[in-house]
Amino acid sequence: xxxxxxxxxxxxxxxxxxxxxxxxxRMTVVTGRRRIGKTSLIMKSVEDEPTVYLFVGRKTExxxxxxxxxxxxxxxxxxxxxxxxxxRSLFGYLMEVGTQRSFNLVIDExxxxxxxxxxxYSDMQNIWDQYRRRTKVNLILSGSVYSLMHKIFQNSEEPxxxxxxxxxxxxxxxxxxxxxxxxDYNAGFQNDDLLALYCFTGGIPKYLEIICDGCxxxxxxxxxxxxxxxxxxxxxxxxxxxxxxxxxxxxxxxxLSAISGGINTQPDIMSAxxxxxxxxxxxxxxxxxxxxxxxxxxGSKEGTQSVRYEIIDNFLQFWFHYFDRHRAMIExxxxxxxxxxxxxxxxxxxxxxxxRYFRTKLAESGLYREIGSWWEAKGNLNEIDIVALMLxxxxxxxIEVKRQKERFRPTCFAQKVERLKQIVLPNYEIETxxxxxxxx
Length: 440
What we know:
The protein is of the alpha/beta class. Helices cover 49% and strands 15% of the residues. Helix 1 packs across helix 2 (38-45) and helix 4 packs parallel to helix 6.
């Protein structure tokens, strides 16, 4: 698959590179979940220039240094003593080279040094502080494990805190890029095909590449391709999150599975888990792992008890809803049966994801200062899918989302909007819409 989008990120990386080469060394951190295209982006931004690319695999420090020495020799055409067996010494050597010439230094999966030799971070801090102002090295550090990368660079107790000149967090492709991609691979696509691609991949580049190269971009062929023996998607959710959670992932998975099935308040989740205390785990899923987010009714105060939880990542929402829930079918290799379950349930599942699609699309427009949903805390009798507060003072949108527009009931919706106006937005001019599959 060709390289899509990332124009702003490439421009920023190239701007930093020019400063590194013309003034003095800069440190840039690129983060984002697995498969989001960090390495492709970085290498695109430094192509055709001397670049030392070091991947931190789970090996001994000495073994890594032996690999790195050969890479450095090949790229920079310099002598590197084979006796170097510590990354501290190797990094110091590279910075010394940087006093004489400019080059890019990319260290990928940087958080893995936690598992190899944690003192690498303090060693690097000392060397960087000594050499930064008198070298011309464009240092780019990349990592996939959110909790560890956040700890390394944004925890004030860690040695590299405050050392990064820029932190770039990669997001999934936006809705416009998804439309471009599906148009390139399926010129006659239907809106439901686009929605399915959004549901199944969430705009994650690697997932898009696998699906685009593997099957026709239509709803049923995509389901059949994703749900088959030896599909890379079957264990992807588990592999992705175990890196974050470690071996004690059971309770976290149970929470996420419940939320993916629509059990989205803390009391209901606790009940589904046998009244197990989960406050600490939910807090960590939000603050440490960036997997969940809190949803409050728009206009409510920070401390309101009317809180729902949502899985941030579209793919994980899909994975927990089907792969984790139907693990027994996967174990006996009943992939056709699981395909049929997903096909039968697709209209319901995608209907809920359609609301997320429109929230994302509204956010991308840059026309609103707040976008959310609204519901009454008691009884849940009134609920509005999307409420968007415009930049223009005292103007808002209230939106009902339906897969088929003929199911929209204007009179009922008008009553809900009037209630919203009375309780939350009394001085607002509220425009109302129904958005459906035909509008994406």
